[in-house]
Amino acid sequence: MIYDVIVIGGGPCGLATGLALQEQGLTYVVLEKGGIVNSIVKSPLNVRFYSTSDRLEIGGVPFLSKDERPTRHELMKYYQSVVSRQSLEIKCYHKVTKIIKEPECFTLNTINQQGRSIHYQAKMLVIATGIFDNPKPLNIEGEDLPKVIHYYHEGHQFYGQRVLVVGGKNSAIETAIDLYRNGAEVTLVHRGESAYHGIKPTLLMDIRNFIEKGKIQFFPQSKVLRIAEDSVLLGTPKETVSIENDFVFPLIGYQPDSKMLKSIGIQMDESSLVPMFDKETYETNIENIFLAGVVTGGTTNKVYIEDGRFHGAKIAEVIKKRFRRMEISNNQQLKKES
Fold first, then answer.
1. 2-134+254-337, superfamily in CATH?
2. 33 touches 93 (CB < 8 A)
3. Which of 129, 124, 137, 203 is nearest to 170 (CA)?
4. Per-residue confidence at 48, pLDDT binned at 50, 70, 90?
């Protein structure tokens, strides 16, 4: 079977795109390398999202959470419900390993959870892979040690451990606070002057209190120079400091899978990793390949689920019109030939 459209990525924006294609009567399948909304699955167990539940809805399906801002568990259950109720066509645990542009369609090579190769074909593609699967690297010695962890789930297992958190945005601050509350010895390293700017108001009072009372050791305007098995070397404005350490959480952000995008010819801004696409249609510089969701923002942190969930509807509308034009053109050609 050659689908009209294949959507790569089963996060909220990919699911929303699949629903929009379904509404337009197009044949499609969503390919997801993990389970649905994998980025949310990887988020901290007890996280409460800053967005309100109504701003996370997709497909016109209402999302009612117990409180105004939903929990991780509530959000996962909501998206499960949407997939089930709308009979969304999705293949989980199908990792796309290669995209081949054929004269009439695209061929996608995938590997499923059993390690079996499966091929899919479609006339058009929508890439909605997000950025959460690709942590920004520190690009330093020791970054590949087992003690370095790029995703934070919960703090219990770090009780009594010497833990260093790198970053100054919400995820890093929230992690540092939770680690301290779970009995870890916490050090926070941030390249900025302060850890108090641009974070959720709900975090501000706690992080200020913990830093100013010395409960969390804070190194502003500093960076990690090297990670060793039992220590970390820091570069501070005054001197180079070595501190004893058991675990490191580099929570400095995430980025698109630039390797995959470039492999099919999509151009990107090298500094921000924002892909080239039409702001009205979301079509890339490669004909019939579209982008949806957070991937369109590169590393700028300017596109979130709240915005990206609407991309799919516009894309589906553009694709439907294109198929109509192609059908009219083919019919006219047949009439001429007859």
1. FAD/NAD(P)-binding domain (3.50.50.60)
2. yes
3. 203
4. confident
Question: How many CB atoms sit inside 10 A of residue 188's CB?
Answer: 28
pLDDT at 99 over 80: yes
Residues 6+ apart with CB under 8 A from 116: none
125-142 pLDDT per residue, tens? 999 999 988 999 999 999
Q: Which residue has the tokens 């501070």?
A: 236
Query: What CATH number belongs to 156-250?
Result: 3.50.50.60
The residues spanned by each domain of the chain are 2-134+254-337, 156-250
With residue 205 as reference, give the H or E element that holds it.
Answer: helix 201-212
Give the chain's radius of gyration (CA, Å).
Answer: 23
**Stretch 113-122: mean pLDDT, rounded?**
97
Half-sphere exposure of 118 (CA within 13 A, CB side): 16
Q: What is the pLDDT of residue 338?
A: 66
